[in-house]
Amino acid sequence: GGNGRNTGTAGGSGGSGIVIVRYAGFTQWFTGGTVTCLGNWVVHTFTSSGTLAPAAPTQLIPLPPNTAIFYSSGTWVAPTGSTQVEYLVVAGGGGGGYSAGNGGGASGGGGAGGFLTATGLSVTAGTSYTVTVGAGGGGGWNSGNTDGRAQNGGNSVFNGITATGGGAGSSSGTLTGATGGSGGGGNGGNSTAGGA
Predict the structure, then answer these.
(1) Closest of 73, 68, 105 to residue 87, by C-alpha
(2) C-alpha distances in angstroms, 45 versus 3, 21, 49, 52, 168?
(3) Long-range contacts made by residues 64-68, C-beta under 8 angstroms, separation at least 24?
(4) For strand 34-38 and strand 41-46, is the pairing parallel, antiparallel, or unpaired?
(5) pLDDT (0 to 100) of residue 97
(6) Burial (0-12, 13-18, 19+ Cβ within 10 Å), 160
(7) Burial code of 15-35, b = ≥16 C-beta within 10 A, e = fewer?
(8) Pairing of strands 19-24, 34-38
(9) How many helices (H) and strands (E) does the chain have?
(10) β-bridge mates for residue 148, sequence order
């Protein structure tokens, strides 16, 4: 804050505020502010008004050699000389449930997508492998007298390895969350269970 005065002169102006937003990893998912990578965090620092806006992912730190990341489905070709790979496969998260509000009942959040990781998965050099990246599940909705249940997240698949999508959260009129990689949340307003 600014300094005060008691001699008839004006007080000092207050200092400007600052907003800092950070998220884990080395991939930048947004634009806005001054972007830095500190430790295992991507940091956006705002010293003046601005906008944090979604953007195409940008890798801030170079990946290790022979590392591939898929943000959408595609094909990976095993490089020359490769016989085994290490993998991390993450499925899409489940959609959150619809809440009627005004005493109409609560809703549950969608479950996290399942993930699988290991080393030593056999591959054949020069062979193309299909990569499927599971999409996030749609949220629950209401249109007039019609309620739509939230959807499970999509499965992610690589070379026979399948991570299961997260379970959909329960909506006001749905008693339980759906099963999935991580089950969807139950309808808290009715004290019901989440999915398995």
Answers:
(1) 68
(2) 26, 7, 11, 10, 34
(3) none
(4) antiparallel
(5) 82
(6) exposed
(7) eeeeeeeeeeeebbebebbee
(8) unpaired
(9) 0, 13
(10) 141
Q: Which amino acid is present at 26?
A: F
Q: CA 74, CA 129: separation in Å to the nearest integer?
A: 9
Please check whether residue 138 is in contact with residue 98, taking contact to mean a CB–CB distance below 8 angstroms: no
Residues in the chain: 196
d(CA 47, CA 177): 42
Amino acid at 74: G
How many Å apart are CA 131 and CA 71, to the nearest integer? 10
Coil, helix or strand at residue 77: strand
Q: How far apart are the first and last CA of the chain?
A: 51
DSSP 8-state secondary structure symbol assigned to residue 164 = P
> 10-residue block means of pLDDT along the chain (196 residues)?
51 76 91 88 91 91 81 93 94 84 70 92 96 91 72 94 90 72 66 44
Give the pLDDT score at 183: 73
What pLDDT does 16 receive? 77
Query: Distance between CA atoms of 133 and 90, rounded to whole angstroms?
Result: 8
Contact between residue 32 and residue 50 where contact means Cβ atoms under 8 Å apart: yes
- Contact indicator for 55, 71 with CB cutoff of 8 Å: no
